[in-house]
């Protein structure tokens, strides 16, 4: 990403570069500001190393060129010395034997070349180290670029998933609104409803939903409709004082048939079934309330079962007390079952044995007057 900006060099400042790349997705994919700045500084360091290596390469080129020129000069000088060799030999004979010959210029040149060669070896070793360091830096940068790409890919994938999820939620909302507006009869089939819904422009807003998804939402909508209508119908029965656990449907139907909560609920057959289910639930509730009455009656204890075995009139005494409560009277139509509930409770207390000492948290028991 940084290499794509030719104006970014090793002298650039992070604050300036950050403004240039702020809109790039590869930049946004990195959450840590410190990490971004650290990678930028490493990039500048790498540019500095590249610049240094280029200068060293240029100096090496100049040295090679100078060496070539020097070799040429040495060759020309050698040719000239060959021509002058005879003259030098003659001149050397004329010189006094005590005179020390001048120092050989070739030895000086050779020493200079050896020194230069040593310097070249050091430079090559340093250049090799610089190349290895540069290679490591570039490898590290490439790995971090890959990491950025992976992070960006994950970010884009998560964003796509979030977009798809949001799109699906919107489609579900549109379809549910369509059902709420157009489907108010729980007796309609899915095939019938589809023909109705397709005529509304909002049907196209739910294109992303599959056939099974739409049918499931339709079934959920029907369940919601039935549940609301059932609650309203039961509310009507609760408000009808003539309804008891022994009421018949024909009798109650005459009382509620004009109420919208009955007419909008369902057919007469379904209303009758719901009425019978309602009475069953009421009976279960009544039995639970009768059990609470037994728990509140202080005369009933863990000794009641043994007392009953010794004296059969003990049951009559208890029922005489219970008769003052409507929770007992409401079960008059099932006297045998009510008596069995009392016996079951006696047996339960007998199995438990004596109760623990009373505490402040123990519920109040019904006292005998």
What is the number of strand segments? 0
Class by SSE composition: mainly alpha
Instruction: Quickly count the helices.
Output: 13
The name of the CATH architecture of one domain is Orthogonal Bundle
Uncertain spans: 97-103
Amino-to-carboxy terminus distance: 94 Å
The chain-level mean pLDDT equals 82
The CATH topology of one domain is Arc Repressor Mutant, subunit A
Tertiary shape? elongated
- Strand proportion, as a percent range, falls in under 5%
> Helical residue percent?
over 70%
Protein name: FF domain-containing protein
GO molecular function: RNA polymerase binding; transcription coregulator activity
InterPro entries: FF_domain, FF_domain_sf, TCRG1-like
Keywords: Repeat
């Amino acid at each position: 990403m940084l290499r794509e900006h030719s104006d970014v060099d090793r002298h650039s400042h992070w604050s300036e570069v950050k403004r240039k790349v702020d809109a790039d997705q590869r930049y946004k994919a990195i959450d840590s500001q410190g990490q971004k700045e650290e990678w930028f500084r490493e990039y500048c360091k790498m540019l500095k190393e590249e610049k240094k290596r280029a200068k060293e390469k240029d100096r090496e080129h100049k040295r090679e060129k100078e060496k070539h020129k020097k070799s040429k000069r040495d060759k020309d000088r050698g040719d000239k010395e060959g021509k002058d060799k005879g003259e030098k030999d003659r001149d050397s004979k004329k010189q006094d034997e005590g005179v020390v010959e001048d120092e050989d210029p070739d030895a000086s040149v050779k020493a200079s070349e050896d020194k230069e060669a040593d310097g070249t070896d050091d430079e090559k070793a340093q250049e090799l180290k610089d190349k290895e360091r540069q290679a490591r830096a570039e490898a590290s940068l490439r790995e971090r670029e890959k990491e950025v790409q992976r992070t960006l890919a994950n970010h884009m994938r998560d964003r796509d998933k979030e977009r798809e999820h949001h799109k699906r939620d919107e489609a579900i909302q549109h379809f549910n609104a369509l059902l709420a507006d157009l489907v108010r009869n729980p007796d309609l089939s899915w095939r019938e409803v589809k023909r109705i819904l397709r005529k509304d422009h909002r049907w196209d807003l739910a294109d992303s939903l599959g056939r099974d998804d739409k049918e499931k939402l339709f079934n959920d909508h029907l369940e919601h409709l039935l549940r609301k209508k059932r609650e309203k119908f039961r509310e009507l029965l609760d408000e009808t004082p003539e309804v008891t656990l022994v009421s018949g449907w024909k009798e109650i139907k005459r009382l509620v048939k004009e109420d919208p909560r009955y007419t909008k609920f369902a057919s007469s057959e379904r209303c009758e079934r719901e009425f019978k289910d309602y009475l069953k639930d009421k009976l279960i509730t009544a039995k639970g309330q009768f059990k609470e009455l037994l728990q509140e009656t202080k005369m009933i204890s863990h000794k009641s079962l043994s007392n009953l075995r010794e004296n059969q009139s003990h049951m009559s005494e208890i029922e005489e007390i219970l008769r003052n409560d409507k929770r007992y009277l409401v079960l008059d139509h099932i006297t045998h079952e009510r008596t069995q509930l009392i016996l079951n409770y006696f047996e339960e207390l007998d199995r438990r044995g004596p109760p623990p000492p009373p505490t402040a948290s123990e519920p109040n028991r019904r006292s005998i007057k």
